[in-house]
Design a protein that fits this description.
9 helices, 8 strands
Amino acid sequence: MNIPKLHYISQGKTPEEHLENIQKACTSGAELVQLRLKNVKKNVVLKTAEKAREITAHYQTRLIINDHYQIAKEVKADGVHLGKTDADPAVARKLLGEYYMIGGTANTLDDCLALVKKGVDYIGLGPFRFTTTKENLSPIIPLMGYHSIVEELKSDTPIIAIGGITLDDVPAILKTKVHGIAASGEITRDFNKINAFHQLLKAPSANEQVWNSETKF
């Protein structure tokens, strides 16, 4: 599965603000958007995900739903991202099948090994820096930590660095041999930075697959 190198994680004080930011990300060239709504009712997540699907499909941008793998299937998203306390990726895989992208959060080498064993398509490894957008934050991972984990993991599963990453951080992070990065606050503050991220990450890929409402890929 082709995993984009830049993941935009939505931000907003309301579901409507999340959708506005997703729209801006898509018009600015985002390849993949993760809808990350916290502390809202499941029916609100569903309704927002439906609207996010409409927006992202229009721009052929991939949509990942945070936490809710059933909703990901219901709205025909491209996949789900599961945190350390969310559903087991193997359980999500049984419902979603092989064509949905499943990502998992990791903080340590052991976390990564467990996720690889459960067949995730990518690993969100972090946090790189303290961020106020996530509660119960795991310990910060320094650059050397990323390098060590990637070296010891010895897996083809793409690693996406995550957590308070700015444009200035990208060159140093890429030297750790991670596949890509996820950004939220840096992009939400200025969506024009998506193009700069792409240039640094050498994305989008010329062979990027196109979302299709019937065949998924």
